[in-house]
Design the sequence.
């Protein structure tokens, strides 16, 4: 909202010499955001001059210029010679002259310069050159503005070009501040200055006449809300639309961001900015019959004031006469009843429209307007009568009209303002400031509330211009705003029980360790959108590829991916495809994120929404959580291309399945668990090159090579390796890792053992048996070779393990390490018939 200071002074007492910074400081203190200062960006000397005489001089380029003699006053050098290209002025006219040294908007500095064979000692200015409008209609003749000033006086002050405006950001819930009335009231709240309400009138002064038919026929109200609750019309006859808009009004409208369009339209815009109630004027002689406010019918069209024909929706609220639609209510008028230079009689409309209806219409037709901007935020329902009267008075004063006191009309709506219970102590408890009772009631009465005592508190009726005050919480916010947000103390929140008092939770730490470990291992994190197709969910979400239940979005961003993902792999494959298309062929990607895994036969979702401002009970929270499908957090990796590129004397090394297994081990090490990988099957992965990953016997994910057909379908050439683990499950199985294990300072003893087992025995099971038998001295154990072939019996395999032993209190002997190894071999022999390979 742009606020010209000269206009603001009419409704509130600004201190003498108050600057824009002072006004900004006051408005910021009551919750407005400072934007910028707007001015006319010109400096003098710019004075009133009188054309003494001129000579028309045709030029070789076909243009005719005027060599003028202009009197600018004795103090400004008397009569000066000025070249002018316009021809709409006459000898004796008083005009605006920019003398050498002046700077006009642009910036456009003025100096004495030779042109067309003369030295032009200044410039006769147009309205556009002064910044008063966009149209160039020739020289600005002061007589057309109804002005007859003395020659030589300052034209900047005369035309209001010395005014300045402050621009503040008005939040959507404070629509009352989209007016001079609202901003002046807020300035008064901030400074204690006296506020003069421009809407303060006696009812008899603003009540319209009767006789003009008005009907509201809203057979299909939106959400039970009637489209128009009040509708006021007044008639002004005998207006002269060609009269000039006064300079003070033009300058104020210009600073407020409104272009001057003629005195009649300027008056309606001026009152809208002044009071906050949008106004519309009709050419009364073009109306056919009375006015009916109704919803649009199927197939109806309307040409609005911007010249566009619009197809109407059944939800659109219309202003109509007997000819049909003549305006989109609260948004924009129609072209058939537009006020023009031929208008002589005006019908003034001021109304209260349903905010939701207006907002939907403006968005449906992509037609935001100054009117819709105010109506959709809520307009004071007591304003239409005052606003219509104010417009009528200005049309009488500035356009020469006569108010028809007899003809008019109004739809009277009941204005009901519900009271709000405000318990004593609530505001202080919520805000954290010890306000006295007098401070609380004083702040509420300052903003216009009616406050009365009630049992253990107050009954508060908000003012009609504050539809945003709906409950005790919004009232508490107003108390804090009026008494200064700087009074609210800065207090660190109390950490929740069980969090250790500070820092991240154990689960958060584990997630960060895993992500950091993968990044350190050379993987690039690539978050993707959580949207997928049903086919991708079925293929990657389960081992079999059978159809799975998925969450379908009611309003998806992309109609081709309307489901929430059940796996991270499809997203990684899309990222890989996008990178390959841009020339990046060697990729090691990872992502951590939620997947959505609804269970078959379970109905999710709820229509029970708890009220705002109240903490839901534990039962309500439990019901809401039960209405949400399981959302486990996964971690997934994708590898394709080369691990290392070709170099002199070294060939390129492609990614292998072992690299994907290495990524799984990296995740396990960061999470603090030991994983087991057993051969398995997945619908999207290559048979024989798929591993099922488990921790302590609990399956947590998979790793493997993507089927060539699946890779080709995703436009991924070459081999693609993926792994996906349930990160939440892995971290839960890891337990608490906050305490680091003690490190022994004694040397380790290493030994190897090769065991013969049946080729159907899982190597991981043999490894578990060795670890169980070796006991506490075993520090690490890993499989280093799996041999099948010559030299061993048919149907067997040779598994070679590297074992490392260490004691915390002594140096182990070779005999102790051997005994521990053989104890492990004994358990493996007992479980699987394993024998030491000679």
Sequence:
């Amino acid at each position: 909202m742009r606020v010209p200071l000269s206009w603001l002074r009419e409704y509130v007492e600004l201190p003498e010499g108050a600057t824009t910074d002072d006004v900004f400081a006051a408005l910021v203190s009551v919750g407005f955001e400072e934007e910028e200062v707007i001015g006319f960006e010109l400096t003098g000397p710019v004075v009133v001059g009188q054309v003494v005489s001129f000579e028309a001089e045709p030029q070789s380029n076909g243009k005719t210029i005027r060599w003028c003699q202009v009197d600018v006053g004795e103090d400004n050098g008397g009569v000066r010679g000025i070249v002018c290209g316009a021809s709409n002025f006459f000898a004796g006219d008083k005009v605006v002259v920019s003398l050498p040294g002046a700077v006009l908007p642009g910036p456009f500095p003025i100096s004495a310069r030779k042109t067309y064979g003369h030295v032009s000692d200044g410039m006769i200015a147009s309205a556009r050159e002064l910044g008063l409008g966009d149209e160039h209609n020739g020289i600005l003749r002061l007589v057309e503005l109804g002005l007859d000033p003395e020659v030589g006086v300052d034209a900047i002050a005369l035309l209001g070009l010395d005014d300045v405006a402050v621009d503040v950001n008005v939040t959507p819930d404070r629509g009352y501040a989209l007016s001079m009335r609202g901003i002046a009231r807020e300035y008064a709240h901030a400074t204690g200055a006296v506020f003069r309400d421009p809407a303060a009138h006696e009812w008899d002064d603003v009540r319209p006449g009767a006789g003009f038919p008005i009907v509201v026929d809203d057979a299909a109200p939106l959400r039970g809300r009637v489209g128009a609750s009040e509708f006021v019309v007044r008639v002004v006859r005998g207006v002269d639309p060609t009269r000039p808009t006064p300079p003070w009004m033009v300058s104020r409208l210009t600073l407020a961001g409104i272009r001057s369009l003629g005195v009649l339209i300027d008056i309606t815009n001026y009152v809208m900015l002044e009071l906050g109630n949008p106004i519309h004027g009709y050419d009364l002689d073009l109306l056919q019959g009375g006015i009916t406010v109704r919803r649009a019918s199927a197939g109806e069209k309307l040409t609005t004031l911007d010249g566009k024909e619009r197809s109407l929706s059944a939800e659109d609220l219309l202003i109509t006469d007997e000819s049909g639609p003549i305006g989109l209510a609260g948004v924009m008028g129609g072209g058939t009843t537009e006020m023009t230079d031929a208008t002589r009689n005006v019908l003034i409309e001021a109304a209260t429209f349903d905010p939701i209806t207006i907002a939907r219409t403006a968005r449906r037709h992509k037609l935001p307007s100054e009117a819709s901007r105010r109506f959709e935020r809520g307009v004071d329902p007591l304003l239409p009568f005052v606003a219509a009267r104010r417009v009528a008075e200005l049309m009488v004063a500035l356009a020469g009209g006569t108010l028809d006191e007899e003809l008019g009309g109004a739809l009277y709506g009941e204005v009901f303002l519900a009271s709000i219970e405000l318990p004593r102590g609530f505001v202080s408890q919520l805000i954290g400031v010890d306000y006295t009772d007098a401070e609380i009631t004083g702040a509420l009465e300052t903003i216009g509330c009616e406050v009365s005592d009630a049992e253990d508190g107050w009954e508060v009726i908000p003012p009609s211009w504050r539809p945003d005050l709906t409950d005790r919480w919004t009232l508490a916010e107003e108390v804090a705003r009026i008494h200064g947000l700087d009074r609210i103390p800065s207090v660190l929140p109390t950490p929740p029980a069980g969090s250790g008092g500070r820092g991240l939770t154990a689960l958060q730490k584990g997630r960060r360790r895993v992500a950091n470990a993968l990044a350190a291992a050379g993987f690039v994190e690539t978050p993707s959108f959580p949207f997928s197709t049903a086919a991708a969910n079925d293929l990657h979400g389960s081992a079999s590829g059978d159809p799975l239940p998925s969450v379908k979005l009611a309003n998806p961003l992309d109609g081709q991916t309307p489901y929430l993902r059940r796996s991270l792999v499809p997203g990684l494959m899309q990222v890989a495809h996008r990178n390959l298309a841009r020339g990046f062929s060697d990729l090691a990607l990872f992502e951590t994120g939620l997947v959505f895994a609804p269970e078959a036969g379970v109905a999710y979702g709820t229509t029970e929404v708890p009220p705002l401002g109240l903490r839901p009970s534990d039962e309500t929270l439990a019901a809401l959580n039960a209405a949400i499908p399981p959302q486990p957090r996964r971690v997934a990796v994708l590898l394709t291309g080369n691990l290392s590129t070709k170099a002199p004397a070294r060939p390129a090394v492609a990614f292998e399945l072992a690299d994907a297994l290495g990524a799984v081990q990296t995740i396990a090490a960061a999470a603090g668990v030991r994983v087991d990988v057993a051969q398995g099957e997945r619908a999207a992965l290559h048979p024989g090159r798929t591993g099922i990953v488990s921790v302590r016997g609990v399956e947590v994910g998979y790793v493997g090579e993507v089927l060539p057909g699946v890779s080709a379908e995703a436009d991924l050439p070459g081999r693609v390796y993926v792994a996906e683990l349930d990160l939440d499950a892995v971290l839960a199985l890891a337990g608490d890792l906050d305490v680091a294990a003690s490190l022994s300072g004694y040397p380790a003893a290493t030994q190897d053992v090769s065991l013969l087992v049946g080729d159907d025995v899982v190597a991981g099971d043999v490894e578990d048996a060795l670890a169980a038998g070796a006991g506490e001295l075993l520090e690490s154990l890993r499989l280093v070779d799996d041999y099948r072939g010559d030299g061993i019996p048919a149907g067997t395999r040779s598994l070679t393990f590297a074992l490392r032993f260490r004691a915390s209190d002594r140096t182990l002997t070779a005999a102790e390490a051997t005994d521990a190894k053989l104890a492990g071999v004994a358990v493996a022999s007992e479980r699987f018939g394993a024998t030491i390979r000679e």
